[in-house]
Amino acid sequence: MKKLQGIYEHAAQMTAKGKVATYIPALATANPDAFAVSLVSMEDKIDFGECTQLFTLQSVVKVFSFMVAMNHHGIEEILRYVDVEPTGDSFDSIVRLESHNNKPFNPMINAGAITVASLLPGETMYEKVKSVTLFLEQIIGKKVHIDNEVYLSEYHAADYNRAIAYILQANGFLKSNVEEALQVYLQLCSISVNVEDLAKMALYFATNGEKSTATCSKEVIHIAKALMFTCGMYNASGKFAAFIGLPAKSGVSGAIIAVVKNGAIEHLQGPIGIGIYGPAIDQVGNSVAGIAFLTQLSKEFDLFCL
Amino acid sequence: MKKLQGIYEHAAQMTAKGKVATYIPALATANPDAFAVSLVSMEDKIDFGECTQLFTLQSVVKVFSFMVAMNHHGIEEILRYVDVEPTGDSFDSIVRLESHNNKPFNPMINAGAITVASLLPGETMYEKVKSVTLFLEQIIGKKVHIDNEVYLSEYHAADYNRAIAYILQANGFLKSNVEEALQVYLQLCSISVNVEDLAKMALYFATNGEKSTATCSKEVIHIAKALMFTCGMYNASGKFAAFIGLPAKSGVSGAIIAVVKNGAIEHLQGPIGIGIYGPAIDQVGNSVAGIAFLTQLSKEFDLFCL
Amino acid sequence: MKKLQGIYEHAAQMTAKGKVATYIPALATANPDAFAVSLVSMEDKIDFGECTQLFTLQSVVKVFSFMVAMNHHGIEEILRYVDVEPTGDSFDSIVRLESHNNKPFNPMINAGAITVASLLPGETMYEKVKSVTLFLEQIIGKKVHIDNEVYLSEYHAADYNRAIAYILQANGFLKSNVEEALQVYLQLCSISVNVEDLAKMALYFATNGEKSTATCSKEVIHIAKALMFTCGMYNASGKFAAFIGLPAKSGVSGAIIAVVKNGAIEHLQGPIGIGIYGPAIDQVGNSVAGIAFLTQLSKEFDLFCL
Amino acid sequence: MKKLQGIYEHAAQMTAKGKVATYIPALATANPDAFAVSLVSMEDKIDFGECTQLFTLQSVVKVFSFMVAMNHHGIEEILRYVDVEPTGDSFDSIVRLESHNNKPFNPMINAGAITVASLLPGETMYEKVKSVTLFLEQIIGKKVHIDNEVYLSEYHAADYNRAIAYILQANGFLKSNVEEALQVYLQLCSISVNVEDLAKMALYFATNGEKSTATCSKEVIHIAKALMFTCGMYNASGKFAAFIGLPAKSGVSGAIIAVVKNGAIEHLQGPIGIGIYGPAIDQVGNSVAGIAFLTQLSKEFDLFCL
């Protein structure tokens, strides 16, 4: 445990190099020094830091809502609404939506995630949100809640996302109305979890969902992992793939999930899920301490997966 | 062998759905019906089609010249000249080079590859080209030659690449002069191989180069594999990752290398390298039959690597 | 009169080369063969075609709402919200709004016009709209009405404009809320006039507003005429300037106003205002017959103004 | 003369707000405090500052080479190679050339001017350059020379223009080879004149060339003036049109020509040509003192031309 402890402690010192997200007031109140990590295998787990601290999923949820939509409509149908190609544009870019009346590049950017929100199963906003929280609850094994303060805060700073939604609607890539897609999307971003929950979410991918009650086809899990690998870490996805080499997804709350298909980290063996919370983020939106932790972890325990 | 044979035969019928690249005369003469596949493990190999047919590497070489430059200058120095992020722009795009005076997004697009060509070790063009052919010869275990007809044909259709090179020079991302970088780049694209050579090149990655005389640090091999996974298959890289899930690189000649870190395909076991030649390519530039073959192969033999 | 009659008749035959705007149902019902022209000097007027036919101003109103806003806030203040530079982008482009968080290029594109709508004097939507209709009524000398069918039709096809408005709001270039700016903008587009009204609106510029009860500073009239000359005719503004050479503004309803500062057209002398209605428009959005008419008119009566 | 003298002196104090162009060494040596103005009518002239100082035309020449090409090939043929639409992009932008394989937006941006250089009459570079210098010599009434130091300096900093030329060639918008078009273009930019020469060049437009031995069709002169009005002053063309309202063209050397079709400035009457040299330029590339002079001049003598 000494090696892992050392990696955690070294990474924890990096929080000072990042800044808490401030584009919505509710995120700005996070403790910039917070840094918690949870690693879980099928049999065991290791925790560092304050593991009961709740925070919101933000972009991490994009992977799961995409899976729920795919499970419901089938892969082919969803691909008519959103592609799975990485893009060098920033997560809230509109340019590509305009230039060719094209569908969103992938469900990890806001445009794609808003389209996916409109495709979720259910007649009402409540049902659509429920379809994702239910899926997450089956994965985590406990109830999850929406942080209403964060949701309202996001809702009041949603001009840009609303603009994206209207362009999607104009181009025929929204299956609900704008208001519904937007509120569902923002509610999903505001789902509240802790790092142990994140670790279980990551473990779900590591095991291809095989022992979970949360049913999902293997094809869909593969697509989700490929998306995490190629575009899960915002505009640093390529560097994350090159230097860490694990499927992972981050959110501006400082959350990260990272997937180890088959590894050995201290006494943990086999599929391992990693959950991280470090709200001090870098310029592209990733937890500074989280990236530092995963970089050294991957190197020390030889986790590069390709 | 029947299953693999069936996959090959089914894919071979797909050649009619693609077209031979015509932007340079020398590529346009390729036989559109040609389709050869080679699979090689450490102990054995399996071939389909005409495996002695020579063709040029085209963009496949970009991975190797990047590795040679990294080996020579070190990872950090090369990253000052070229990033490793995927981009949704087409391979010959100039837009990003202009808008922010930025370095090339990655070495798989032409801009990045021309920058890399300028960074190769050696005083002369000859030495720079030699540095890559030597590396390939150590990997393949035999001499390789440059197809001079293809080279001259490319050289006479190089307006766009030359424009890219001048912008790179203006922005300080070229270490040689334009003419040298361009000629080195185009000569490397014109290196001539057969599918068995490709398979060996792929196997090099599958084994992390461990038993090869071609020395390369593990870190550089990891970066190269990550680049192949995130942006090796032109603008279909995301779909390739999602539905096939292997590090791979394609060229407009119809060449593909695909890397199986640890698999079981018929009697082949462990690390497996796959080489493909199918000059009938789709709209983004990938061999139609090659993609069909790899799609079914990955599914039937469970090769998805994440 | 024979020469002018001939020019009108020749131009009238061009209507078949254009198409009525169809992006909103209410415009699509216009008679594609309609073509009316009105020329008015301080003393006299000449009409061709059905001059009592009502139609909506569409983009023609942009010049006038810009003038009302300038008159109210002063030139300097308005220039903080919208520039006066031509752009090669299409009238509904978003790209520039995103790429540099920049203010709209000019008030003739939708982004600029929506910003201007938010800057109109008045506390309520009604008052803002009224500020422009009042100005127009003083210029024309009669009441104008809003075509409610067209307004509602536009309102229900406003996704793209709404997206633009949200981006403007996000970037701080909207002085009212989105809904108000948008509704005011669309109501102004739906103001209903006939060609004689248009001719009087054009004459207002030709006389620099000197004898009108509609007060406006000469500086503001100059800016408005410069805008018409550099970007009044959508993406054909440059060709209109080069081959016709008059300040002019068009709308997708097929309306055009064109300003002759000092000319001699048949028995009309001095400042002349030209109003045109020809709903069959070309690809960039200008009345086909209108362009044909003005091209020959400018040549025959030597109206090129520079 | 007191009023004009005052305007000159006030403007002369503005030189400190600009900076001499430094992108090529030969321009960087200009005296930043220099400021000379020449006004010429058919009968008389007024000079301020050091009027014998030579400087290079830079972008001012673009108008004249365009006219020579139009005179030789006819308007229609030239418009197949270059459009006459203003664009909000900077003068050396490549983006539009790439995105739609489109022809250059207008001959005032570098792309359009390089295309025009390739279209000049003559078999050799020498003859092509000669075709423009000859035209200028007929307008000015004396020999002009090319400043070889400036030319060589520009030639060695031409990466970006060379890139543009290669893209033009790739897209079929170059009628000579790249090297010839580029050298002709850069030689034309390096033509050396003084402010009195500039004033005569401006007067040529003011009189529509009617009394000059430099023959040019009225249509071509109109197109040239329209281009100056809509896009002659780089990315401040719209503001120049709105607040000064004269056809004009500037160069980064600090040169400006401005055209008064019919005015009264002190004892000068009728068509007046204005030449300005003030090498301290603003961020978009226009002489700071020149803009200040023309702004006040236009206001005081009521020169706004629309």
Automatic annotation (TrEMBL), chains A, B, C, D:
Substrate binds at S59, N110, E154, N161, Y185, Y234, V252. Belongs to the glutaminase family. It catalyses: L-glutamine + H2O = L-glutamate + NH4(+). One of its GO terms (molecular function) is glutaminase activity. Homotetramer. Its EC number is 3.5.1.2. InterPro entries: Beta-lactam/transpept-like, Glutaminase. This is Glutaminase. It comes from Solibacillus merdavium. Keywords: Acetylation, Hydrolase.
